[in-house]
Design a protein that fits this description.
Blueprint: E1 5-9, H1 13-20, H2 25-33, E2 37-42, E3 45-50, H3 53-68, H4 75-86, H5 91-95, E4 100-101, E5 107-108, H6 113-124, E6 127-131, H7 138-151, E7 157-162, H8 178-196, H9 199-208, E8 211-215, E9 227-231, H10 239-246, E10 254-259, H11 276-280, E11 286-290, H12 300-313, E12 319-323, E13 326-331, E14 334-336
Parallel strand pairs: 6-10, 6-11, 7-8, 7-9, 9-10
Antiparallel strand pairs: 1-3, 2-3, 4-5, 12-13, 13-14
Helix pairs in contact: 2-4, 3-4, 6-7, 7-8
Length: 337
């Protein structure tokens, strides 16, 4: 019985070089991911033989579409493309969506299907909750969409806020005025902002008040019209603070609330984010998007660590595993690193 076989014709030597990578780097990634197939490259033709050859052929077709649209492939986005094709998703649709061209000339795009759902939800809804672990791009993509909305003049200002809660360590007395004292809590938002805009341009917008970065306590008593508002680290709000924030939203405004419910640092764990989906379900214009391990776009070891903690919390793993270069011991529900 002959094995299934698919041939892909690549229109041009330059496309073939981009498709297989330097010294066939990308080709090796595909072969490792789909071990049951044999891949033969001859001239401008790729022949895939074996079980799953149709899926590998679709992968190459998706990569070709991305190259022809001007995207540069690297091992990271080839790996994410492989994961999406295995999940029967269309990476060319996900990775081709441009959210913003940053001040450094780099396009900001969703890198996973979960991130694409998150971006689409923000565009389509008045309030979007992005819930997921570290490294899933929750804050970064929200800031990119906020900057784009400002450029498009669909809002008049951007407001970035987060609760001033210490992450398990005491910072002690900090010198300076009030903003100097809370600045360490807001630094991640500044980092994302400066990555989207040239530092001089960002500073001008901050000085004019077009972009405001402030602790959550500063939102009380305000009505925020024509604004793009981002509440970061929302798992560290109390239920009262969350209600206060959500009722600040005025006409012509859009809000994004981001958080990781596994990293609650407030006393007694009374997080305003936990259980909120049940409270707000059925309200038009409110969307909840959950991001997971597959949406982590930092170093691959971060996704492996997130997955290891999830398994440990479920109490399903006992023993020692190798996690992308990190030896981890798991016993019951505890994790020893």
């Amino acid at each position: 019985m002959s094995l299934p076989q698919v041939k892909i014709l690549v229109p041009g030597n330059h496309l073939m070089v981009a498709l297989v990578g330097q010294q066939d780097e990308f080709l090796r990634l595909v072969e490792e991911a789909f071990g049951a197939v044999d891949i033969l490259v001859r001239g401008n033709e790729i022949t895939v033989t074996g079980e799953g050859s149709d899926r590998v052929a679709r992968l190459f077709e998706e990569l070709l579409v991305m190259i022809q649209r001007g995207q540069l492939l690297d091992s990271a986005n080839v790996g994410r493309t492989i994961d999406m094709v295995k999940a029967d998703e269309r990476p060319s649709e996900v990775l081709a969506t441009q959210v913003l061209k940053s001040g450094k000339g780099r396009a900001v795009r969703p890198k996973t299907s979960g991130q694409k759902r998150y971006v689409d939800a923000i565009v389509s809804n008045t309030i979007t909750f992005g819930i997921g672990p570290a490294g899933t791009g929750k804050s970064y993509l929200a800031v990119a969409l906020a900057v784009q909305a400002l450029f498009d003049k669909s809002v008049h200002r951007i407001i970035l806020t987060r609760p001033a809660v210490e992450a398990g360590e005491r910072l002690g007395f900090l010198p300076g005025d009030l903003m100097a004292k809370v600045d360490p809590y807001l630094r991640p938002l500044y980092d994302a902002l400066y990555d989207m805009l040239e530092p001089e341009g960002a500073q001008r917008l901050l000085e004019r008040g077009t972009i405001e970065v402030a602790p959550l306590a500063f939102m009380r008593g305000r009505t925020l019209n024509s604004s793009f508002i981002i509440l970061d680290e929302a798992q560290n709000t109390t239920p009262e603070q969350m209600k206060m924030f959500l009722t600040r939203i005025g006409f012509g405004s859009k809000a994004v609330v981001t958080g990781d419910v596994t990293q609650v640092d407030i006393a007694a764990g009374r997080s305003g984010l936990l259980g909120l989906e049940n409270v707000l379900s059925g309200i038009e214009g409110v969307s909840f998007v959950r991001l997971g391990r597959r949406d982590v776009v930092r170093h691959r070891i971060v996704a492996d660590i997130v997955s290891a903690y999830e398994r440990a919390e479920q109490g399903t793993d006992v023993g020692v595993r190798q996690v992308s270069g990190l030896t981890e011991t798991v016993a019951g529900s505890g994790v020893g690193l």
